[in-house]
Amino acid sequence: MPAWRSSPRPLPVDFHRGMNLAHLHRDGFGYGSARSAAQVARLRGLGVTHLALNPFAYAPSLSSPDIRWGGDATLTDEGLAAQIAQAHAAGMATMMKPHLWSTAFLFGSGNGDIELDAAGWRAWFEGYTAYVVHYAEMAERCGCAALCVGLEYTSASRHNPGAWAEVARACRAVFRGPLVYAANWYEEWEQFSDWSAFDFIGIDAYFPLAGRSLPELTDTWRGHFDAIEKVARGRPVIFPEAGYRAVQGGTDKPWAPDSDDPDADLQARAYEALLLAGSERAWFKGVYWWKWFTDLPGEGDPFVPADLPAEAVLKGWYTSRG
User: Fold this and answer.
1) What would the 3-class secondary structure string for 282-322 be?
2) Which domain holds residue 58?
């Protein structure tokens, strides 16, 4: 592999130098804890300016319209509010980004695999809207800078054109900040019918990359940005999620690499490639890396760049000044 070094460029002042801060579901380790405050301080030192915070609802199955939330004793509104206050005290902006979880996800399924009939979808969107509006109200009350109303609900988007615009309308009634929907990198972002209802085009950008060298990875990213440009047509784009596991093949299939063998340098080159290619586009307004935990080592997730070369790449780009 040819030698390489990071060559950060100054990013625009309004660029979302973001990170997803994942809650550890243990008392004293999650949102609002002293441990989390230490991680916020570390991220601020890396130049992170925007944190995405991820409360959860739970789906009993992917064929049920039921959405349950508010029953996690380790993830309370009070803890989430304390986490927002920690971030703001450190000079960071926050994006509220509610998630959905199901035990089906343990077996390879995801948000995009929910399948319901017409009546089921109506019930699902009714329950989901109540869920996200609760956090929209909290985002307004706590001074969040943005709200991500949903992410990667490919099947819901395909079968219900116009439904996400209705969710956005309900959120705007209680939240005055900008809204984004985070579409899946595979097809959904191109087919999504409701972009006009949102302030940002959002893509969870787990695009596969060809090659392993920095030039190859960067050229592949330029191709993805070319495709995004055709859809965005000058509208601002952010990535509410993007990231790579620090393993061999982590760029081939970022969502599920075929190997667990470590390759931290590949992760770092992939960070560099995204930022190199993205910084060439004036309409690209930020990336929230997936992910960092409220305490380390967290869950041992190989996406986390802490203490790896990717952390240095991130710091170089996020603190670069022109």
Assistant:
1) CCEEEEEEEEEECCCCCCCCCCCCCCCHHHHHHHHHHHCCC
2) 16-319
